Amino acid sequence: MCGRFTQKMSWREVHTLYRMPAQATPLNLQPRYNGCPTQDFTSVRLDGSERTAMKLRWGLVPSWAPDPGIGSRLINARAETVHERRAFRAAFKRRRCLIPADGWFECRKEAGGKQPWFITAADRTPVSFAGLWECWERGDEPLETFTILTTAAAPTLGDIHHRQPSIIEADDYEEWLAPDTPHGRLLALARHSTEGPYDCWPVSKRVNYPRIDDPDLLAPLAA
């Protein structure tokens, strides 16, 4: 699963990465070094035919949910079953998005317990997680939320965790976001285990505390 990730890009970097329209409204982006469920993150989706960026809360709340509390249990959607589960299947058909990330954390089982590791692209470029979004309108104001798809880990990451976020390559952004992409192609994109290459290193267990959010969390753990 993916329960923590980093998102520390500037608006210019997001704008360039997704080739957004020149007139796109800039967002005030807050860097997150220990991004946690129920927090707001930058996401990119289609508005008509153009890509647009907005803030969504992590933890998908389906439109039929009686209250938003269910979101904390729907932070990830398995790519193998996303098209079947009631909570995700409508969004998988019609409401897909991209979540830019600089990297993510996974915990590896070791002799001394679970040890968090940070995983990032070897060249330190951002990646785009496959996401789904929903709008919940039963409260005082509409609430827009998202979930991150996960798939089997690439062989190079299997020693850390057996799952990884589904990563959409730049050449596939259009297909992932487009409303008319065939169902089979969407499943193939969601289930693809991106090989990387990646850099990975153990980090402090301070990352287990949501209130801690500083650059030092990404420092390699001293031997």
Report on this model:
Strand 9 (127-136) and strand 10 form a beta hairpin. The strands form 2 sheets. Strands 3, 4, 5, 6, 9, 10 and 11 form a 7-stranded mixed sheet that branches. A 5-stranded antiparallel sheet has the order 2-1-7-8-12, with no helix packed on it. Helices cover 12% and strands 35% of the residues. The two termini are 26 Å apart. The protein has 4 helices and 12 strands; from the N terminus they run βαββββαββββββααβ. It has a single domain (5-218), classed as Alpha-Beta Complex (hypothetical protein yedk fold). It has 223 residues and is mainly beta. The protein is globular and about 50 Å long. The relative contact order is 0.19. The protein has helices spanning 11-17, 89-94, 173-177, 183-191; strands at residues 5-7, 32-35, 40-47, 50-58, 76-78, 96-101, 103-110, 113-121, 127-136, 143-152, 163-165, 198-202.
Helix content: 10-25%
Helix run count: 4
**CATH class category:** Alpha Beta
SSE run? EHEEEEHEEEEEEHHE
CATH architecture classification: Alpha-Beta Complex
Instruction: Provide the gyration radius in Å.
Output: 17 Å
The count of strands amounts to 12
Average pLDDT rating:
95
CATH fourth-tier homologous superfamily: SOS response associated peptidase-like
The name of the CATH topology is hypothetical protein yedk fold
Could you tell me the strand content as a percent range? 25-35%
Q: Biggest β-sheet: count, sense, barrel?
A: 7 strands, mixed
Shape type: globular
Would you tell me the structural class of the helices and strands?
A: mainly beta
| Unreliable residue stretches | none
- The oligomeric status of these chains comes to single chain
Domain module tally: 1
Distance between the terminal alpha carbons, to the nearest Å?
Answer: 26 Å
